[in-house]
Specification:
Elements (H helix, E strand, L loop, with lengths): L1 E3 L11 E4 L7 H14 L8 H9 L6 H4 E6 L2 E13 L2 E10 L3 H6 L7 H5 L3 E3 L1
Antiparallel strand pairs: 1-6, 2-3, 3-4, 4-5
Length: 128
């Protein structure tokens, strides 16, 4: 199955495409991006596949297959984002987090992470 996602306001970067979460197969690239971010920010924390697997095994109010977005340039994953919600005082509060691999594309791909993934999903086209 291939996915073609329409992301309103996405930057015009040659080779930039967006896709959904692919399950455990995405864990290694997520670890690589998170560790590259930590290194760029001079943080000593190292992520592991086990860390990511544990987090994703215990997600609440988030379906990563629906609520995550990955950005790729010429087939290389350069960023990912996730949304979720919590209930507080009978209200749903939506949150998001994303990471972009450090480098020249980070500034160019960052704006798409500011758009909630559910809004993006309204124009998603899934082809098989």
């Amino acid at each position: 199955m291939t996915s073609e996602l329409c992301v309103p306001g996405a930057p015009a970067i040659p080779g930039l495409t967006f896709r959904r979460f692919r399950g455990e197969a995405d864990y290694p690239v997520m670890v690589a991006i998170l560790d590259a971010c930590n290194n760029a920010d001079y943080l000593e924390y190292i992520n592991t596949l086990e860390d990511i697997a544990s987090v994703f095994a215990h997600l609440t109010n988030c379906d990563p297959y629906r609520d995550m977005l990955f950005a790729e340039v010429h087939g290389e994953t350069v960023a990912f984002s996730r949304v979720w919600w919590i209930e507080e005082n009978a209200a749903h509060i939506h949150s998001q987090a994303g990471s972009s691999a450090p480098g020249p594309l980070a500034r160019s791909t960052a704006p798409w992470r500011c758009s909630p993934v559910p809004a993006m999903s309204r124009c998603a086209t899934i082809s098989r």
